[in-house]
Design goal:
By secondary structure, the protein is of the alpha/beta class. Among the domains are: about 15-215, ANL, N-terminal domain (Rossmann fold), CATH 3.40.50; about 370-430, Luciferase, Domain 3 (Luciferase, domain 3); about 435-530, ANL, C-terminal domain (GMP Synthetase, Chain A, domain 3, 2-Layer Sandwich), CATH 3.30.300. The protein contains 16 helices and 25 strands. A nine-stranded mixed β-sheet has the order 2-1-11-10-12-13-14-15-16, sandwiched between helices. Strands 7-6-5-3-4-8-9 form a seven-stranded mixed β-sheet, with helices on both faces. Helix 1 packs parallel to helix 9 (about 240-245). The longest helix has 17 residues, at about 45-60.
Length: about 550
Amino acid sequence: MALMGQMMSAPLLISSIIKHAARYYGSTEIVSRRTEGDLHRYTYRDCELRARKLAQALGALGVKQGERVGTLAWNGYRHLEIYYGVSGMGAVCHTVNPRLFPEQIAYIVNHAEDGYIFFDLTFLPLVEGVAPHCPNVRGWVAMTDRAHMPAEAKVPLLCYEELLDAQDGDYEWPQFDENLASSLCYTSGTTGNPKGALYSHRSTVLHSYASAMPDALGCSASDVILPVVPMFHVNAWGLPYSVPLVGAKLVLPGPKLDGASLYELFEQEKVTFSAGVPTVWLGLLQHMQASQLKFSTFRRTVIGGSAAPPAMIRALEALDVEVIHAWGMTEMSPLGTASKLLAKHHDLPDAERHKIQEKQGRVIYGVDMKIVDGEGKELPWDGKAFGDLLVRGPWIIERYFRNDASPLVDGWFPTGDVATIDADGFMQITDRSKDVIKSGGEWISSIDIENVAAAHPAVHMAACISAYHPKWDERPLLVVVKKPGAEVSREQLLQFFEGKVAKWWIPDDVAFVTEIPLTATGKMQKLRLREQFKDYKLPTA
């Protein structure tokens, strides 16, 4: 007969994180730049009380367990309260990306069947536009106080602070099954309609534990953490959960994400650690370089969302900032890997160490991965063979929300990325499967091409896409945005590639543009670029 353990059984619930923070880190600060224009300060103890009041208010509005409650909001203390108040009462917190097209937002709200939507005042025009197309939303809540409520609005509005003021906070967080749904995020929807990833309390708490570990994001109570990655982008990579879990001071930047505003907040609040996509750091670095600024306390950042160019990693290292290259997906809650060195790597020459840090890194505990060829056969971990990347684990999607067909292949989730894995388990994304360039039957990594181009001093941003070639089928075309005031010719850029990549990888041409379209989460939108250049005639053709 099996012998069972004799330990307490407690469900892993999101409310336990904010209860822990309030009880053991109660005086630690949460600082927010508000849409009202000022800086707001309070503590984890204050946050937990207000989250309880919100849970009471939602109950008074008739919100039931499992009902979806949407947000259109920046990184701020009220948004944090919604994360905990909604999930803590047993409803589902659905963060909607306000950077999507209004038609996509209406589709997502209707597909999720959101009962209420909470929004920052910045997004009032957006709300007024989509509300008529979302007939099942029972109420729109402006996340402000009565003094800042809009004088006129085309939609009946509830006031967030009035909802909370009507409650006393005498509320006990309910206990329920840890496998109940806690939050909902939709994919960016670059192809077809966005799809929903429905997380559970169990998956979220486990992800928070694992992502805070030293060889993942390495969060600690001695840190001051500012997530630049928005709370509407895969729950800000889990930081609104992992930061309170460890009791670190939390700084939320609100709507002002330009280089100057971020730098001011970093210095003023003594930020030690941050996280964001490469385009954010591009703006911050340009501001600092133009004004010859340095960081006084900022020492670590996680870069994900898309591959960080090596030139960006070096630029941050020159400012004494360690870059943790990471990778994940909405379907993975999102963290899958982090590039933290092993003990044996610290004595390597800089060039060899840099090559390792440029990879997306090793899995964090809870994630399993493999690469396979076109027939599904597993490929070796030799750092050379590259194939389709598959993952599995307790915070990885099993099926999409309201879709009975599972995307899993023999229990593994196909990520859509092409990657290599070396003997030490360091994974490197070589491309998205739809972005890889197939030239004469051989694959060329668009990411490698972009990384070389981004290192040129005149290049602000570069994207590599395939262009039709009558002999080779596809050849690389480099699309470049130059830095303001910088000059570089097609010939100079192509010459820059010599000795840095295989000769047959060098792009056949360069197209200069004023901007490269970005997705709602700050990634280069290659689908639109391919459409824009679909009739492009290569000089080699």
